[in-house]
Design goal:
One of its GO terms (biological process) is intracellular signal transduction. The chain is mostly helical. 49% of the residues lie in helices and 3% in strands. The protein has helices at residues 3-10, 16-24, 50-62, 67-76, 87-92, 95-102, 112-124, 139-151, 153-158, 172-175, 190-200, and strands at residues 25-26, 41-42, 45-47. The model has no long low-confidence stretch (mean pLDDT 86).
Length: 207
């Protein structure tokens, strides 16, 4: 997939195309070699090449206004949340979308530059953090981050392997981050987004 293809999947408030793509393509773990000529499959899905993943992230960061739409889909499909810990994301993402992303990481160990952006946005009242972000990360959250790190986000989020873990069944949704409220999207006409894309598109360095 090319950058132009990702534009139609991500620069919109509709997620049907993105979900369709993810029915046939696999976001492989970062350590999986996906260079040119490397084709990996799992459950009939072909893994994204490294360049495809770079272009996905570039377009996603270019259109952070639509993050409330594409962010939950990508994270549930196994995208590594750390790939979105980017200054542009923290500068421009909607408050709810940013809070949603922070729930997938250890927010107390963010890089200093990102913390500075958050503090500025808090002062400007363009970001309203959820109350528990001002407290020490809970042990339960640390545990699920560690489990995801060991299993990999794709395996944890897209298969029933979590049901095989020696934990009570009520914790399954928690371990898959399904207890987190998804962000809501504030409507903006797609035509305006297309015009801004054509006039101000800027490639962002990721991966």
């Amino acid at each position: 997939m090319k950058e132009e293809d990702w534009f139609y999947a991500l620069a919109t408030d509709q997620t049907a195309l993105l979900q369709l793509i993810l029915e046939y393509r696999w976001i492989s773990p970062p350590e999986t070699p996906t260079g040119s000529g490397s084709v990996f499959q799992r459950d009939g899905k072909v893994s994204f090449q490294l360049q495809e993943l770079r272009e996905l992230l570039c377009v996603a960061l270019e259109h952070v206004h639509f993050a409330p739409c594409w962010l939950p889909v990508l994270l549930k499909a196994g995208l590594q949340p750390s790939l979105l810990l980017h200054p542009h994301m923290f500068d421009h993402a909607d408050s709810d979308a940013l809070n949603y992303l922070l729930e997938f990481v250890n927010w107390t160990t963010l890089p200093g530059g990102l913390k500075i952006i958050l503090e500025r946005r808090r002062e400007e009242q363009t970001w309203k953090p959820w109350p528990h972000f001002d407290t020490i990360t809970s042990l339960s959250h640390m545990c699920r981050l560690q489990i995801r790190s060991m299993l990999g986000p794709d395996l944890l989020m897209r298969t029933s392997i979590v049901q095989q873990l020696p934990v009570p069944s009520p914790l399954h949704c928690f371990l898959q981050f399904r207890d987190i409220q998804e962000p809501s999207y504030k409507h903006s006409p797609l035509s305006n987004q297309i015009q801004r894309h054509n006039n101000t598109h800027q490639h962002r360095h990721v991966l």
